[in-house]
Amino acid sequence: MGQPISVVRKPSSKPRTLRFEINRTLTGMGHERYVAGKEVSGDRPPDRLAKRLFEAGGVRVVHVYSNIIDLTVDEDAKPDVYEDVIRQLYIHYGPGVTPSFSAS
Hints:
Blueprint: E1 7-10, E2 17-22, E3 31-35, H1 45-56, E4 59-65, E5 68-73, H2 79-87
Antiparallel strand pairs: 1-2, 2-5, 3-4, 4-5
Helix pairs in contact: 1-2
Protein backbone atom coordinates (compact mmCIF):
# COMPACT_ATOMS: atom_id res chain seq x y z
CA MET A 1 0.00 0.00 0.00
CA GLY A 2 1.06 3.54 -0.51
CA GLN A 3 2.18 5.20 -3.69
CA PRO A 4 5.66 5.08 -5.13
CA ILE A 5 7.34 8.43 -5.67
CA SER A 6 8.36 9.34 -9.21
CA VAL A 7 12.11 9.98 -9.21
CA VAL A 8 14.20 11.60 -11.93
CA ARG A 9 17.97 11.77 -11.61
CA LYS A 10 19.28 15.17 -12.71
CA PRO A 11 22.83 16.16 -13.65
CA SER A 12 24.96 17.98 -11.11
CA SER A 13 28.00 20.17 -11.74
CA LYS A 14 29.53 19.15 -8.40
CA PRO A 15 31.66 16.01 -8.24
CA ARG A 16 30.24 13.18 -6.12
CA THR A 17 26.89 14.96 -5.85
CA LEU A 18 23.74 13.21 -7.00
CA ARG A 19 20.55 15.19 -7.54
CA PHE A 20 17.08 13.71 -7.63
CA GLU A 21 13.83 15.48 -8.44
CA ILE A 22 10.61 13.92 -7.18
CA ASN A 23 6.90 14.53 -7.74
CA ARG A 24 6.18 15.51 -4.11
CA THR A 25 7.41 18.18 -1.80
CA LEU A 26 8.99 16.84 1.37
CA THR A 27 9.92 20.09 3.13
CA GLY A 28 7.74 22.84 1.70
CA MET A 29 9.98 25.90 1.40
CA GLY A 30 12.38 24.76 4.12
CA HIS A 31 15.87 23.29 3.71
CA GLU A 32 16.87 20.18 5.64
CA ARG A 33 20.48 19.01 5.85
CA TYR A 34 21.66 15.75 7.39
CA VAL A 35 25.26 14.61 7.88
CA ALA A 36 26.41 11.01 8.19
CA GLY A 37 27.38 10.10 11.73
CA LYS A 38 25.07 12.65 13.33
CA GLU A 39 21.76 11.52 14.77
CA VAL A 40 18.72 12.15 12.60
CA SER A 41 15.97 13.09 15.02
CA GLY A 42 12.35 13.41 14.06
CA ASP A 43 9.92 11.30 12.11
CA ARG A 44 8.90 13.59 9.28
CA PRO A 45 9.27 12.33 5.69
CA PRO A 46 12.64 14.06 5.08
CA ASP A 47 13.95 12.65 8.37
CA ARG A 48 12.86 9.12 7.48
CA LEU A 49 14.30 9.46 3.99
CA ALA A 50 17.69 10.64 5.32
CA LYS A 51 17.84 7.70 7.75
CA ARG A 52 17.10 5.23 4.96
CA LEU A 53 19.63 6.79 2.60
CA PHE A 54 22.38 6.62 5.24
CA GLU A 55 21.44 2.99 5.94
CA ALA A 56 21.91 2.23 2.22
CA GLY A 57 25.59 3.17 2.61
CA GLY A 58 27.93 5.48 0.78
CA VAL A 59 26.02 8.69 1.57
CA ARG A 60 27.84 11.48 3.42
CA VAL A 61 25.32 14.35 3.26
CA VAL A 62 21.61 14.53 2.45
CA HIS A 63 20.09 17.90 1.56
CA VAL A 64 16.36 18.16 0.91
CA TYR A 65 14.66 21.28 -0.39
CA SER A 66 11.02 20.93 -1.36
CA ASN A 67 11.09 18.22 -4.06
CA ILE A 68 14.85 18.24 -4.71
CA ILE A 69 17.17 15.78 -2.96
CA ASP A 70 20.94 16.26 -3.20
CA LEU A 71 23.30 13.58 -1.95
CA THR A 72 27.03 13.92 -1.39
CA VAL A 73 28.32 10.40 -1.84
CA ASP A 74 31.45 8.26 -1.74
CA GLU A 75 33.19 7.29 -4.97
CA ASP A 76 31.66 3.80 -4.91
CA ALA A 77 28.09 5.13 -4.55
CA LYS A 78 25.21 3.28 -6.19
CA PRO A 79 22.76 5.85 -7.59
CA ASP A 80 20.18 3.21 -8.55
CA VAL A 81 20.00 2.03 -4.94
CA TYR A 82 19.35 5.57 -3.69
CA GLU A 83 16.74 6.09 -6.38
CA ASP A 84 14.89 2.98 -5.16
CA VAL A 85 15.11 4.14 -1.52
CA ILE A 86 13.51 7.46 -2.51
CA ARG A 87 10.84 5.79 -4.65
CA GLN A 88 9.83 3.48 -1.77
CA LEU A 89 9.50 6.19 0.93
CA TYR A 90 5.69 6.00 1.07
CA ILE A 91 5.34 2.25 0.44
CA HIS A 92 4.08 0.75 3.69
CA TYR A 93 3.54 -2.89 2.76
CA GLY A 94 5.89 -4.82 0.51
CA PRO A 95 5.44 -8.17 -1.19
CA GLY A 96 4.48 -10.88 1.26
CA VAL A 97 3.40 -8.46 3.99
CA THR A 98 -0.22 -8.65 5.06
CA PRO A 99 -1.71 -5.30 6.09
CA SER A 100 -3.02 -5.28 9.62
CA PHE A 101 -6.42 -3.83 10.32
CA SER A 102 -9.05 -4.04 12.97
CA ALA A 103 -12.72 -4.58 12.26
CA SER A 104 -14.98 -2.37 14.30
